[in-house]
Queue: 3 jobs
Job 1
Amino acid sequence: MFNLFPAVFPEIFPINATLILLIHGVVFSTSKKYDYPPSASNVGWLGLPSVLITMLLLAAGAPLLALLFVEQGNNLTIAHLFRNHFLRKDDSTYFCQIFPLLSTAGTILMCFDYFEQERFNAFESIVSILPPTRSTLFMIPAHDSIAMYLAIEPQSSCFYVIAASKRNSEFPTEAGSKYSILGAFPPGISLFG
C-alpha cells in the first residue's frame, strides 16, 4: 500500500512552519533578555527557507507518485486519488504548486524593503503570508467543491488580517473590519442557503 504522507507533506509543512514562526516571533519580540529585537526581518528570513523547503518537498514528492504509477502498471493520467476524490495529485498539480511558492518567496523578499521604508516592524504580516500559501497548495489539487471551499476560506481570513496589519492608521483598520464583515456574509449564505 502506498503511504500518503509523503504526497501530502508539502501541504502540511507550511502549517508547522507557520506555528514555529509565530512562536519565534512572540518569544523574541517580547523578550527582555534579547532587548526586544526587530522581529519582522528575523521572521522573514526564517519564513523564506520554509518556502524553499516546501518546494524541495514538492520536488521529492513528485517522484514518489511516479513510482506508484509505474508499480501499479496503470495507464491513467491521474496518478493517485485521495479519499473520495478529495485531492488529485499528478505531475501537473506538482508543477502548478511551484508557482505560488515562488510568488510567496518573492513577496517575502519584497516585504523587507517595504518594512525598511515604512519602519514597519510587525512580524505578524510575514506569518500571515504563509497560511494563504498553504491554502493555495490545497486548492490546486482540489478535486471537489468542498475541498475548494475549505481551501479558500482560511485564505480569505488571513487576507483580512494582512489588510488591517498597519495599526497606526485608521484606514487599514477600517478596511480590515469591512472585509471581515462583508466576507462573512457570502460563505454564510452559500453554506446555509
Job 2
Amino acid sequence: MMTNLFSVFDPSTSVYSLSLNWISTLLGLMIIPSTFWLIPSRNFIMWNSILNTLHKEFKTLIGYKNINKGSTFIFISLFSIIMFNNFLGLFPYIFTSTSHMTMTLSLALPLWLTFMVFGWINNTQHMFAHLVPQGTPPILMPFMVCIETISNMIRPGTLAVRLAANMIAGHLLLTLLGNTGPSLTSSLLSLLLITQIALLMLESAVAIIQSYVFAVLSTLYSSEVN
C-alpha cells in the first residue's frame, strides 16, 4: 500500500534511462512567450510589482543600504523557479520536481557551500565570532562552538527537507482523498469534492509560502557571512 501511495512521486517517463519528467523544471522558460517580457501587460505589471517587493524585502535582509537589483537577483530567481515548480506539481499528470530531495538539495547545497567558502576566505574573524554568541559564559564556549558548527552544517539539509516534506505531505493527502472517491456515495462524493477544492487552495498557498521561506532563509544565510 505504501509503495503504491508514494509511487505518485516516481518519474514515469524515460528515454534511454534519462527521465524526461525533470524537463518540467524548465518548462516555464518554454511556455512563457517573449512578448510577456517586452510588451507591458497586466501580467507584466503584476509580476514586476512582485519582483520589486521581493527586491525591497531581500535588500532589507541582506543589510546593504546602496544595493542594486543584481545583488538580490539570485534570490528572486530562486523564489521564481521554486514557486513555478510547486504550482506546476498541482496540475494532474505533471511531475513535481520540488518534492524530491534531488531537486531541493541541488538548490540548497551549492548556495550554502558558496556562502561558507566566501565567508571563511574573506571574513574569517567574523565567521569565528559567529561560533560564540555574545554574552556566552567562558565555561560554555566550547559547547557553543560545537552546537553552532552543527547548526550551521545542517542548514542545507533543513532547507531541502522542509521544502520536499511540505510538497510531499500535501500531494499525499490529495492522493489519499482521490483514491477514496470511487467507493463513496453521491452525497459523500460532493463533500469530498469540496474538501479537495479547499485543500487545493491550501496547497496553492503552501506553494507560495514555501518558495518564499526558502528564498528568505537563503538570503539570511548570505547576510551572515558579510
Job 3
Amino acid sequence: MSKKILCLCLWVAAATVALGSLLPPPRLTVFKPKHPITTVDSIAVSDLHFSIDVAELRVHLNVTLNANVTVKNPNRLDFTYANSSAFLIYRGKEVGEAAIPAGEIGGGAAQSLNLNLTLMADRLLSDSDFYSDVISGTLPLQTNVKLPGKLRLLIDISIVSYASCDLEIHLASRSLDQKCHYKAKL
C-alpha cells in the first residue's frame, strides 16, 4: 500500500513539474507591467483677454487653457504617480505651468485630471516672434504632460507616461486647433 502511495505522489509531482514548465509564471502574463495611457481629452481656451495699445506699442494678453487629461491604468495593480507638472511651451520656451498632485489609479481604472494652464504673458512679450504671431492672428503653443509613477509587483517598476499637444490659438475667433502625441516608458 505504501508503494502505491509513493508511486502516486511521484506521478503527481512529475505532472506538477511538467505543467509548471509548460505554463509561464503569472507575473510574466497576468501581472506583466503595461504602460499607463495618458490622453488629452480636450483643451479649451477658458479665459482670453487680448488687446493692442497702439499709443504705447504694447500688447496685453492673458490666456488660460483648461485641459482635461485622462490617465488609464491597464494593469491589474495600482499605479501610483508622483507630483508632476504640465507645461505650456511657446517656440521652445516654457511660458506656463500647471501642477499635477500625486495620486493613485486602481488596477484597470482611469482617472480624469482637470488642469488650468495659465500663460505667463511677460515671458511672451520679450520674444520678437510673438508680435508677428499676434499680427497673423494665430498663437502656436505646445503642452507637455509628464507623469512619472510606479507599479509594485515584487519590486517597484518605474513607468513614465507622456502626452504632448501642438496647439494653434486663433485670437480673433478665440478657437483652438490641436494635434496630440502620446508615449510611455518602462
